[in-house]
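Reviewer comment 2.1 asked that we show a complete input and output for one of the modelled complexes. We chose the uridine-diphosphate-N-acetylglucosamine case, as it is the one discussed in the main text.
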Amino acid sequence: MGEVCAVVLAAGDGKRMRSARPKVLCEVLFRPMIGWIADTLAECGIGDVCAVLGAGADQVRAAVPQFSWVEQRERLGTGHAVMQARAFLEGHRGGNCVVLCGDAPFVDAKTLREAYRLHKQESAAATLVTAFLPDPTGYGRILRDGQGNVSRIVEQADADEKIRRIQEINAGTYWFSVDFLLDALEQLRADNAQGEYYLTDVIGIAAAQGRRVCGYEAADSRVAMGANDRKGLLRLNELARQAQLERHLDGGVEIICADGVVIQPGVQIGPDTTILPGTILKGNTVIGKNCVLGPNTIIEDSVVGDGCQINACQIEQSRLDENVKIGPYTHVRPNSHLKAGVKIGNFVEVKNSVIDERTAVAHLTYVGDSDVGKNVNFGCGTVTVNFDGHDKYRTVIGDDCFIGCNSNLIAPVEIGSGSYIAAGSTITDMVPQDALAIARARQVVKPGWAAARRLRLGPRKK
Ligand code: UD1
Ligand code: CA
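Response of the prediction step:
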């Protein structure tokens, strides 16, 4: 996009949110609002960004480490906020700068690009994004002159009845010629109802100087939506959630009831996959086709192949190949790979393990730090004992093994392919292939022992 830079206004505190976090870290679909803006700027290829930070600056910097930043010690308004970035702007003289509000996450790349195109084409001093809202309350209103050119923005607090009826509002996103902006900032005064330096007055200054000001009307009024309190944040979440659901429905995903279905923007889902209520899909997650996910499932940063069934599970940073069937109540922890046809059942936890094709782990089992072969059958209640209180060790199980119920496999240990582990064994040593390992005390039977005891002690007390 040529010689461009960005300033993001993010000095707001969380007061109206009643949050200890700065406002721009409040989340929409599990991503801080400023993260949405960072994604959009990255999509536009705008890498030179200065954030204006206030309370909780350290936390914001950690969320967007790629931004440079300045501090606004006192919150004296949006114009004052941009003044803090003066040195940054001086470094971009001759170019153009986009100014965005950190609390309006839905500004999209297309809107930024098209507003910029208009700005360049018209050699404008300023181009602002506008939107029409049925209820414009709280936003700055756009005033246009007889020719339809933007002449001024009037804030809600300064507007009379007539102006308050205007439905065209300032979305809070602006392109400026840097030279013009630096000059106009010098002229801002705080002589308004809120006693603040309004960035919006820069627009009136440009028009009064006879400079070109363009209004770019956004195709979708959502670009203007911001959140000032928790109710506003819930509205943003609901809008974003709905937009994601529609994207996937258009892509052929089946959702029979959308209650509690929350899907983050980066997630991909193949057609004919069914999503049941209470399913949350987060991060870099890719789901194949013909899967059934949910109910009550969370999948984060994971890849799920075609034809998988995942019922009431939690999966993190893991990979499932085709036709894997897991749940209910299975926890797949990071760095696990379940290969094709694997079945994992109730109350099973898998961590940092590879489980090869068609292996079944049906009930009440822990598989951690393990490499498990194909066609292995785990009996109920198997534990890979991977931790000695100091270090973690791996368990290696070959193909076609049968692990009897209630076995402990004490790592590091290797079970050769085709071997059997007797139920109740605690295996500490390598088992060669095709062997049977029994590692438990031999059963002792004492005939008549119980009857003799009853005779000796008399009737059982109640
Ligand atoms: C602002 C605009 C309004 C527009 C609306 C769109 C002004 C005067 N008004 O109003 O025309 O319709 O956004 O959402 O600009 N901030 C700072 N430092 C400050 C004040 C604000 O960094 O001293 C930041 C806030 O953290 C926020 C952004 O600037 O991210 C907007 O500030 P806010 O107070 O929310 O402005 P609005 O009243 O919403
Ligand atoms: Ca706002």
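The pocket of uridine-diphosphate-N-acetylglucosamine (ligand 1) is lined by residues 9-12, 23, 52, 72, 75-78, 80-81, 101-104, 139-140, 153, 155, 169-172, 198-200, 226 (CB under 6 Å). We note this here for comparison with the apo prediction described in Section 3.2.
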